[in-house]
Amino acid sequence: MALTALDPKTALIVVDLQRGIVAYPVAHPIGEVVSRARSLADAFRARGLPVALVNVAGSAPGRTEVPRNNQTFSAGWTDLIPELDQQPGDIVVTKRTWGAFASTDLEARLRARGVTQVVIVGVATATGVESTARQAYELGFNVTLAVDAMTDMRLEAHDHSIAKVFPRLGETGATQEIIDLLAKTA
């Protein structure tokens, strides 16, 4: 669905833009994704809207057919990248699952601020971003996805999420469209 509106209390959720993950090879230039995420964060902060910075450390418990890599993360692997310009008022969440809402206090922290809509960006489109979007949708948030401010390790997974999954969860648009809508909402 094309981008039509932002609620007055919309939050930005930045998924897994952390040192260890941005070092992976991805389908789209990570510098452009980071730059767009930063532009959105700056625009949200300028309007006093919440910015949630999410990183991942570990993985959820449970059996899977894919062998788990139980490596110890190198120093700094989970650190949010400095380009995000983390501010004292930002919500910072560490997750251990794909989605940012499962087993974290993100929902409670957003609800406490009156948030009714979320804009989601980050890495990886088909895992962290999509899982966060699905959870937000299931929790009753209006969902918007900035499709030019995300990427994946696999181009086909990225494209599938954008074309087939995201339109069922909410609205999609480009970073500049979202910033323009923010200006009209304020």
Automatic annotation (TrEMBL):
Record's keyword terms, sorted: Hydrolase
GO molecular function: hydrolase activity
Signal peptide: none
InterPro entries linked: Isochorismatase-like_dom (IPR000868), Isochorismatase-like_hydrls (IPR050272), Isochorismatase-like_sf (IPR036380)
Gene3D superfamilies linked to this entry: Isochorismatase-like
CDD domains cross-referenced by the UniProt entry: cysteine_hydrolases (cd00431)
All residue ranges annotated as the Isochorismatase-like domain in the record: 10-176
PANTHER family, A to Z: ISOCHORISMATASE FAMILY PROTEIN YECD (PTHR43540:SF7), PEROXYUREIDOACRYLATE/UREIDOACRYLATE AMIDOHYDROLASE-RELATED (PTHR43540)
Name of the protein in question: Hydrolase
Upper lineage: Bacteria, Pseudomonadati, Pseudomonadota, Alphaproteobacteria, Hyphomicrobiales
